[in-house]
Amino acid sequence: MQQRPSTTEEYQRKINIIVEYINNHLSETIDLDILAEMSGFSPWHFHRIVKAFLGENIGAFIIRMRVETAARLLRYSDMPVQEISWRVGYDVPGYEQYLNNPANTAPEELITEIHIPIE
């Protein structure tokens, strides 16, 4: 007889699906209600579960994924900043507000300053 996964394992599986979806759709507008629907949770419960498993709310997680992806691309690719900003879902006129780090380093400066390990 096959044992049912625990609630924690089931929640982790659903969170993994959501994280993969986000990583594959960074260039698009990500609708939080659709993410909740994909997970099978109500929007309220979805936000609670995401915060518990990822340690941050879903909006902050999406922003962090976009910024980390942009930083990696700035550092390790030859793509222009404009293309990188589109690839991670930001319009060019507003990209600096998202790609700047807390010290207000411009994205172009991240190319030489940031070190992100690639797994």
From TrEMBL:
Protein's UniProt keywords contain Nucleus: no
InterPro entries documented for this protein: Homeodomain-like_sf, HTH_AraC, Reg_factor_effector_dom_sf, SmbC-like
Domain called HTH araC/xylS-type: residue spans: 16-113
Keyword entries, A-Z: Transcription, Transcription regulation
One Pfam assignment: HTH_18
Keyword Cytoplasm: no
UniProt name for this protein: HTH araC/xylS-type domain-containing protein
Lineage: Bacteria, Pseudomonadati, Bacteroidota, Bacteroidia, Bacteroidales
